[in-house]
Amino acid sequence: MEKEIIRYPRIHGVSFSQDDIPTVFPPHWHNAAEFIVILKKGCKYRIDGKFYEPEPGDILLVWPRELHELLHTPQGSVAFIQFSSYLIESNSDFASASHFINECHLIKKGENPELTAKIEGLIYKIRDAVNQNIYFAETRCKVLVYEILLLIGDFVMKEHCQSLGGVHFSDRLWEYVRYACSYISEHSSENITQAEVAQKTGLSPYYFSKIFNEYTKMRFPEYLAGIRVQNAINLLENESISVTDCAFKSGFQSTTTFNKVFHEQTGCSPREYRKFLSQNKRM
């Protein structure tokens, strides 16, 4: 298993690739999301332990920090974008629905021809924005990424709206959860508690815990830790900030907890992650 650092040579946080893609690549993971357009038959992938053999026109989705493997791709058989996990994790809409969205790895053209065509078209618009020397290219690319995410989000949530949390989907309850996720993101560097967030949403601690678990499929401490690790990852890119300061600035109350949670979620220590970043910058 390899940890891969994604480099964005032209547009910060977004890249497009189609040429010189290896036919095989060993199990690896990265902090970026990767959306793949299948152009030819014969592609074989393994994502999060599951085997996929998509057809031409299908869209394959790899989410941040998912272990995946390219088993075989004929030459010229795929095109894909990669983009920073920050675009997902800094957005409370997508962060609150991440459990359901991250379960979606394949959108089949045969079952959803209009959706796959729209996503493919947007991916090629990103290609054009990356390759053209135009004003606000980064902003254009990120807007297009959000258009793709919105299409996928609508698709996934419609699929799950009748089974969320074992109860019928409720717009009112979802709004409570979305607001809570937004509040957690904005205050994650502070010593916030579940009781505090429940109070901000206007719910009792018990009821808040119940719906938060049902709708996100995560306990509050687990969700908060994930936000703090992402904040730490962003801080670790700045080598002028010590690892200890990264821990406290991202909201952890001790370096011991920081090291433990960071390793659980990334597979390496904060210092190893920074060293890996530094080595890749010099390559």
Write the layout of secondary structure elements.
Layout: E1 2-3, E2 14-17, E3 25-29, E4 33-38, E5 44-47, E6 50-52, E7 59-62, E8 68-72, E9 78-83, H1 86-89, H2 92-96, H3 98-101, E10 106-107, H4 113-131, H5 137-160, H6 171-187, H7 194-201, H8 205-216, H9 220-236, H10 243-249, H11 255-266, H12 270-282
Parallel strand pairs: 1-3
Antiparallel strand pairs: 2-9, 3-8, 4-7, 4-9, 5-6, 5-8, 7-10
Annotation keywords:
283 residues; alpha+beta; five-stranded mixed beta sheet; five-stranded antiparallel beta sheet; 12 helices; 10 strands; 14% strand; globular
Q: Which ranges are low-confidence, i.e. pLDDT below 50, for 5 or more consecutive residues?
A: none
Largest sheet: 5 strands, mixed
Measured by DSSP, the beta-strand proportion falls in 5-15%
Overall form = globular
Question: Could you give the order of strands across the largest sheet?
Answer: 1-3-8-5-6
What structural category characterises the helix and strand content?
A: alpha+beta
Number of strands: 10
Helix segment count? Answer: 12
The helix content, as a percent range, equals: 40-55%
The averaged pLDDT comes out at 88
- Gyration radius, to the nearest Å? 19 Å
Spell out the helices and strands N to C. Answer: EEEEEEEEEHHHEHHHHHHHHH
The first-to-last residue Cα distance is: 20 Å
What can you tell me about this protein's structure?
The protein is an alpha+beta fold. Helix content is 50%, strand content 14%. The chain contains 12 helices and 10 strands. The chain has helices spanning 86-89, 92-96, 98-101, 113-131, 137-160, 171-187, 194-201, 205-216, 220-236, 243-249, 255-266, 270-282; strands at residues 2-3, 14-17, 25-29, 33-38, 44-47, 50-52, 59-62, 68-72, 78-83, 106-107. The protein has a 5-stranded mixed β-sheet with strand order 1-3-8-5-6, with no helix packed on it. Strand 5 (44-47) and strand 6 form a beta hairpin. The radius of gyration is 19 Å and the shape is globular. The model has no long low-confidence stretch (mean pLDDT 88).
